[in-house]
Specification:
Blueprint (H helix, E strand, L loop, with lengths): L23 E3 L10 H4 L7 E3 L7 E2 L12 E3 L7 E2 L12 E3 L5
Parallel strand pairs: 1-2, 2-4, 3-5, 4-6
Length: 103
């Protein structure tokens, strides 16, 4: 699902609840500041999440927990200042995780 450069500021919790077969979600170049596990609920099959070039400041506890199939996570060019030690604890298949150039 491509929601690129759509000026998205906020994603409601459960927004993706009925998309359990979705494998790729592309949200880059928006103005998203908050990303948490409640927002990502329902994306059990997601393998690629591209959320670079947003305004995300923190990655909280179990943020990516609802994504057990996640393999590629692109987070660069955000405002990440803190990542909870448990943020990726359910992501054993994660192969690519880019965080560089976060302000």
């Amino acid at each position: 699902m491509d929601l690129i450069n759509d000026l998205i500021v906020e994603i409601e919790p459960g927004a993706f609840q009925n998309l359990s077969s979705l494998t790729g979600l592309f949200l880059y170049s928006n103005k998203i500041a908050v990303l948490n596990k409640e927002i990502l609920q329902g994306l059990e099959s997601l393998q690629t999440l591209d959320i670079k070039d947003n305004l995300i400041g923190n990655i909280g506890d179990m943020t990516f927990g609802p994504l057990p199939e996640l393999r590629t996570l692109l987070l660069e060019n955000n405002k990440i200042g803190e990542i909870h030690f448990n943020a990726f604890s359910n992501n054993s298949k994660l192969e690519v995780n880019t965080l560089f150039t976060s302000d």
